[in-house]
Write a structure and sequence with these properties.
The structure holds 2 protein chains of 2 kinds. By secondary structure, chain A is mainly beta. Chain A has strands at residues 4-6, 11-14, 19-25, 32-38, 44-50, 55-57, 60-65, 70-75, 84-91, 99-101, 105-110. The chains are: A mainly beta, B mainly beta.
Amino acid sequence: RKEVEQDPGPFNVPEGATVAFNCTYSNSASQSFFWYRQDCRKEPKLLMSVYSSGNEDGRFTAQLNRASQYISLLIRDSKLSDSATYLCVVNVGGSQGNLIFGKGTKLSVKP
Amino acid sequence: ETGVTQSPTHLIKTRGQQVTLRCSSQSGHNTVSWYQQALGQGPQFIFQYYREEENGRGNFPPRFSGLQFPNYSSELNVNALELDDSALYLCASSSHTGELFFGEGSRLTVL
């Protein structure tokens, strides 16, 4: 079983749609959780951290369920500029740089 | 811009050769991490350096080695290149908050 698994995608949605990404992780000792965004042939950039209480940043909502080892990202009112690959990321502890990345889910928002 | 710069941006090598990739971290960041991202995959942690010492290592063979210098810049060296080493190599720097800032990467092709 992979350490971090994501929906295989790709997701093709019209502008204005709501889209949800799911992610599961295998290490119950995982300490912190993130969603990164990666544009085509660019570096990953932090989109948002994910907290147990859930957190929201504008159109983006992230949820964490530690019991189920499940993380989600919801994007409301999709924009063309949201088109990218979304990477689910887990820190299993130890050095801060040792992040475990999922394979990513590609999102294409169409006019 | 993250302030993390990598060089070279692209390079082509042949099997068995050696390569050195370089990274300048963001000002004030004393921790540098290196990741390998194969096509269609998420980044995989290679190792991290903190104050010139290796501070964690992923599942990569010893022919992957690194250095960090007093100014916190870093090098990744790969010996005896194999075809599967073809990938985007990402450097990320971080401060005490733990957030990673990635450079744009060095794209290595091994023929």
